[in-house]
Design a protein that fits this description.
Elements lengths: L1 H18 L8 H19 L2 H22 L1
Length: 71
């Protein structure tokens, strides 16, 4: 279920980025964060270290993007 939540959020985020509709495209970073967060939870549930590292890094990138766009 967590993978599907991530998939839906990634599709929404990608669409927002690709269409570049102002002022909505900046919300893509929130959807990316939700998607990466759900995948991170899944990585912890399955105890897959490489995915934990990957999605922690992506969450940091998403947090920087949210900070830059919303501050």
């Amino acid at each position: 279920m967590l993978n599907w939540i991530g998939t839906v959020n990634f599709l929404v985020a990608g669409t927002l980025i690709a269409t570049n509709i102002e002022p909505y495209s900046k919300y893509a970073f929130i959807f990316f964060m939700l998607g990466h967060g759900s995948c991170l939870l899944n990585a912890f549930n399955k105890n897959i270290y490489s995915l934990k590292v990957r999605y922690i890094f992506f969450c940091i990138i998403d947090a920087v993007g949210i900070y830059n766009w919303f501050s």
